[in-house]
């Protein structure tokens, strides 16, 4: 659990795919929000499957962008 | 006589429709603190549900039906949103702020949101046959899934996104599928020759029989279509025919209301020219500042954004940031994403490996990007969106 997910609310269209992939990490109302930590693999899967590519992943310690 | 005042005051917001635009409007009203009555007139027997899975996951997996509902039933009661099911809007009297319903009743509104969506176009020659359908509802999708599971030979008329996605689902189920498209290439008019060629190769590589530039000249069969003959004499046998040639706005019920049935022109907040009547989603033609005209969208993302924009307009809040026209599709396990206005382009540049389903197509006009198609590389989308962001801000020169 070294990644942090950041969601661009202007890009998110609330498809809900991230919540389907990782319900413990994401909740989608009018836009998606991050509700908790979770495994890096799930964050990467959710980010890659987002139809609008609205999820950015950064390293918690360094702030380095991992995805996209 | 109802308990509502005859002029509609206190009647709250009535949303005609139960799709995405309607749902987003209702939930955004509550999120923005709107405390009045909110009613949704859902024509279907279901609570609002999401349609994109109907041409994707639901075709292959009955369990996927369980996750199409936007919200569980108790969400609506918890938010005091009344979802009237199995009843449709049937007539509008905007002067009286009154909406007639298909069950013979009528309800008043303070604000009406027309979000009745669209219905699939049918080819008249096919309309009377038993084994012909369109795909719009959960029931439509379920019926196709059952046909595919039985390995029915499917004939799809139209190689737009619905036709393509069903073809993909049919091949995943191991069913034989023929797609007939009148245009010379799939999506030719929207995405151009290079991408049309790529889509054609994609489907043929997956075993789809794709027939381009032809239409059906003759239908064989009595109550059921058994085969069709195409313009050039070729005969194609089928167990089932899916008509996937696009949609038209579901607005026949507005006849005589003063609003056009082809799509209601609105401003950026969904306001129509009638007082207190808004529109969103496939029923609406929002004003696009970049294109400089009202434009039907027909895409999922714009329907959601328009529903939310209408809620902002109703409660008098600043409208959300406009977003680029966009859509996505999943075919044969590959994610396809699109942004912008490819119809403005004079050139398209491809970067990547088409055969590996990993490439970007950037559409330019006078060297400036106006649209992009991203295949199998979702990580490329944010940068492209940044490059195209100006499209939501200023008109073309």
> N- to C-terminal separation of chain A?
18 Å
Strand order of the largest sheet of chain B: 3-2-1-7-19
- Mean pLDDT rating of chain B: 93
Residue share in helix of chain B: 10-25%
Strand order of the largest sheet of chain A: 1-4-5
Proportion of residues in extended strands of chain B: 25-35%
Sheet with the most strands, sense and barrel status of chain A: 3 strands, antiparallel
Q: Biggest β-sheet of chain B, characterized?
A: 5 strands, parallel
Distance between the termini of chain B: 56 Å
Rg of chain B over CA atoms, rounded to whole Å, is 22 Å
What is the CATH C level class of the largest domain in chain B, in words?
Alpha Beta
Explain what the structure shows.
Chain A is α+β, with helices and mostly antiparallel strands and 68 residues long. Chain A has one domain (3-67): Alpha-Beta Plaits, CATH 3.30.70.20. Helix content of chain A is 22%, strand content 28%. Chain A has two helices and five strands; from the N terminus they run βαββαββ. Chain A has helices spanning 17-21, 40-49, and strands at residues 3-7, 26-28, 32-34, 55-59, 65-67. In chain A, strands 1-4-5 form a three-stranded antiparallel sheet, covered by helices on one side. With 397 residues, chain B is of the alpha/beta class. Chain B folds into three domains: 13-119 and 248-315, FAD/NAD(P)-binding domain (3-Layer(bba) Sandwich); 122-243, 3-Layer(bba) Sandwich (FAD/NAD(P)-binding domain), CATH 3.50.50.60; 333-392, FAD/NAD-linked reductase, C-terminal dimerisation domain (Enolase-like, domain 1), CATH 3.30.390. In chain B, 22% of the residues lie in helices and 30% in strands. Chain B has a five-stranded parallel sheet with strand order 3-2-1-7-19. In chain B, helix 1 (20-31) links the parallel strand 1 and strand 2 (38-42). In chain B, helix 1 packs parallel to helix 7 (300-315). Chain B starts with 12 loop residues before the first strand and ends in a 9-residue tail after the last helix. Chain A binds chain B through residues 8, 10-11, 13-16, 20, 29-30, 48-53, 56, 67-68, and chain B through 24, 27-28, 31, 50, 52, 67, 300-301, 304-305, 308, 320-321, 323, 326, 328, 335, 337, 378-383, 385.
């Amino acid at each position: 659990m070294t990644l942090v997910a950041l969601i661009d609310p202007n890009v998110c269209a609330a498809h809900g795919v991230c919540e389907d992939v990782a319900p413990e990490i994401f909740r989608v109302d009018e836009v998606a929000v991050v509700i908790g930590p979770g495994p890096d693999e799930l964050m990467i899967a959710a980010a890659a499957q987002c139809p609008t590519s609205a999820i950015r992943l950064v390293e918690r310690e360094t702030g380095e962008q991992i995805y996209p | 006589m109802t308990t509502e005042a005859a002029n509609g005051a206190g009647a709250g917001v009535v949303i005609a429709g139960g799709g995405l635009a309607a749902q987003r409007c209702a939930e955004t009203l509550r999120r923005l603190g709107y405390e009045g009555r909110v009613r949704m007139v859902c024509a279907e027997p279901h609570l609002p549900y999401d349609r994109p899975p109907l041409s994707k996951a639901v075709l292959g997996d009955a369990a996927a039906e369980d996750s199409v509902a936007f919200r569980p039933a108790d969400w609506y009661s918890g938010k005091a949103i009344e979802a009237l099911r199995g009843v449709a809007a049937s007539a509008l009297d905007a002067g009286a702020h009154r909406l007639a319903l298909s069950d013979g009743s009528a309800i008043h509104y303070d604000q009406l949101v027309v979000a009745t969506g669209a219905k699939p176009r049918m080819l008249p020659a096919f309309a009377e046959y038993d084994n012909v359908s369109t795909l719009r509802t959960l029931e439509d999708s379920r019926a196709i899934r059952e046909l595919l599971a039985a390995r029915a030979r499917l004939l799809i008329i139209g190689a737009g996104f619905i036709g393509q996605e069903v073809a993909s689902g049919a091949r995943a189920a191991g069913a034989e599928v023929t797609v007939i498209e009148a245009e010379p290439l799939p999506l030719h008019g929207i995405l151009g020759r290079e991408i049309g060629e790529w889509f054609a190769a994609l489907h043929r590589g997956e075993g789809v029989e794709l027939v381009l530039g032809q239409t059906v000249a003759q239908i064989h069969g009595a109550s059921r279509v058994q085969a069709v003959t195409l313009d050039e004499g070729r005969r194609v046998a089928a167990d089932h025919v899916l008509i996937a040639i696009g949609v038209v706005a579901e607005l026949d019920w507005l006849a005589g209301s003063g609003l056009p049935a082809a799509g209601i022109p609105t401003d950026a907040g969904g306001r129509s020219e009638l007082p207190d009547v808004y529109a969103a989603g496939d029923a609406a033609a929002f004003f696009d500042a970049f294109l400089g005209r009202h434009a039907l969208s027909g895409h999922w993302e714009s329907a959601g954004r328009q529903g939310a924009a209408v809620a902002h307009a109703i409660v008098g809040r600043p409208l959300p940031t406009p977003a680029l026209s966009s859509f996505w599709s999943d075919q044969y396990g590959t994610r396809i994403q699109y942004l912008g206005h490819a119809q403005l382009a004079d050139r398209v540049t491809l970067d990547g490996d088409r055969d590996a389903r990993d490439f970007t197509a950037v559409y330019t006009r006078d060297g400036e990007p106006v649209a992009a198609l991203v295949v199998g590389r979702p990580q490329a989308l944010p940068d492209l969106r940044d490059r195209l962001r100006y499209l939501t801000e200023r008109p073309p020169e």
